[in-house]
Design brief:
Largest sheet: 3 strands, antiparallel
Radius of gyration: 24 Å
Strand order of the largest sheet: 1-3-2
Structural class: mainly alpha
Helix content: 40-55%
Number of domains: 2
């Protein structure tokens, strides 16, 4: 009988121990989380974007360790999200990342609308902060959605006198990887301008009309307005 009780006690201790380990090492779940990016390629894409945006300075290794989590929380804080360090649906949407499919490498070849968008981003905003380059792409996409402008990316970009880079031929320059990534981020839904249709450099513009537009934000040397 005593031997039976000892065995029973050991079994109970084992069950409790397994339960503790299982629950202790589950990822923390914030109120916004339904799914988390678990694949290495998704994690690398998260790190790449956070690094491009200035939140992360570590290596792109696909491991979301303490430094990556700190960067995610900083990103979440800026955009008013739950600061849990987890890339759930809302955080992923702000980052322009899909949690349901593998993220395509940002350095892969692009064509069509994305390539044209990248060309305009490079011509109009190379040298600007990465977020500012995404913002320029977002303005173009916002114009496509607006009834005030042509309803295609090429139509918006080549609308007469819409962009200085088209008028002076810089649109024909080959975009770099940064511009391509910025175009992709905007195409995936990231809009640092919050819906703006215009941008300008106050130090260069001679268009007095543009100052009548409602200013939303300033990123780098560009002012973005509605």
């Amino acid at each position: 009988m005593k031997k039976y009780l000892i065995i029973l006690s050991l079994c109970l201790l084992l069950i409790v121990g397994v339960s503790y380990i299982t629950t202790s090492y589950l990822p923390l779940v914030g109120e916004e989380t339904v799914a988390v990016a678990t694949t290495t390629s998704q994690n690398k894409e998260i790190q790449r974007r956070l690094k491009n945006w200035g939140y992360y300075s570590g290596s792109i290794d696909g491991i979301l360790g303490p430094q990556s989590i700190k960067a995610i929380k900083a990103f979440q804080k800026k955009y008013g999200l739950v600061q849990d360090g987890i890339v759930g649906p809302k955080t992923a949407a702000k980052m322009g990342i899909s949690l349901t499919s593998s993220t395509t490498s940002s350095t892969s070849k692009v064509s069509g609308d994305t390539y044209l968008l990248a060309k305009c981003v490079y011509a109009e905003s190379r040298g600007e902060p990465y977020e500012g380059q995404v913002a320029v792409a977002a303005v173009i996409l916002n114009r496509v959605k607006s009834s005030q402008f042509p309803n295609t990316i090429s139509g918006v970009i080549y609308q007469p006198w819409a962009f200085t880079a088209v008028n002076d031929g810089q649109i024909n320059l080959e975009p770099n990887t940064t511009a391509i990534n910025a175009a992709k981020d905007a195409m995936n839904g990231w809009d640092p301008t919050h819906g703006c249709l215009f941008y300008y450099n106050p130090a260069l513009t001679t268009n007095k009309w543009i100052y009548s537009r409602q200013v939303v934000t300033t990123i780098g040397k560009h002012v973005f307005a509605l």
